[in-house]
Amino acid sequence: MTAQLDVDTLRRWLDEHRPVTVLDIRTDEDRAQWAIPGSVHINAYDAVRAGQPGALEHVSLPTDRPIVTVCNAGGVSQTAADILAARGLDARSLAGGMKAWSLAWNAAEVPLVDDSVRVIQVRRTGKGCLSYVVAAEGEAAVIDPSLSPGVYLAIAEKHDWSIRYVLETHVHADHLSRARELAHDTGATLVLPPQRRVHFAFTTIADGERIPLGGSTLTAMHTPGHTDESTSYLLNEAAVFTGDTLFTDGVGRPDLHADGEHSRHRAQALFASLNRLRRLPERMVVLPAHASEPVAFDGRAIAARLNDVERWLSGWLVSQSAFVDRVTSKLPAAPPNFVRIVELNEAGELPTTDPTDLEAGANRCAVR
Ligand SMILES: [Fe+2]
Questions:
Q1: Is 95 helix (H, G, I), strand (E, B) or coil?
Q2: Coil, helix or strand for 243?
Q3: How many angstroms is it from 139 CA to the middle of ligand 1?
């Protein structure tokens, strides 16, 4: 049997731009859900699984770099790697496949006009979850952590920052929150919007309340709609962390855990929240909690200035009734396992089993 490559090594290779061919052999349908940035796709899953001779015969691949085969869970890709290795190629299989890849991440610094603060965007590339390390004068806050505490601790240590606060924009439905775990491991204050959903202790931050960070300030702006408690955080007048309320190319869906009438009510609240956000200074940078595509290893932050967002958002906000109709119809399927994920996030618990069993798959928190 040929060698396997673990997710962390592949993510490091891609981060360092090492030459590697990532060969995705899944079906077209699976590929369309989500993929590894820069990967090559051939729909060979069924042929390889069926043991068809010559399943990968017609595939020409560069011979000057390793090949990493990928499938959903790392089984069929192992057979594919064996076939390629028998042809004399340096091939290995991604251990755990796309399910394990769900935890792969990369980071990008957000360019800001205000040089008294720094913001590192931490991206779960496979799921598109975006979290942030915000720092000023050596003090840091982490917003919406979706990866294990070690990822954020390593970033803070590298810059000599001390994590003082862990904030959530809302109770998430698409990923398991690591906020409580990170606050526990760092001794940081865990800060959540006021709500009666979670069953653990936290510090509340209501609309207009502030958190000092070095000489800078994070200010809460209650922006309900995606969920009732959804809150955005303003970093000075430089940036706004909008959670799942406002994305760079869409808005939050109002329907999770809500029936028809409740989701229309939430959509009305979202309309008001978006109107509040669009009145912020136009040079502020919008930093959402999700990307719509797998995040490339390009070091470029997923962000947009408010005046760029306004170009499309103004068309959405012409009237409340048209907006409500738009965001309550044609919604994508709910995120996989979201009921269980919300239950765990409200309990403040992580599953005792592999978290990617629940989290695998792309996020679906937006309407576009
Ligand atoms: Fe969400």
A1: coil
A2: strand
A3: 27
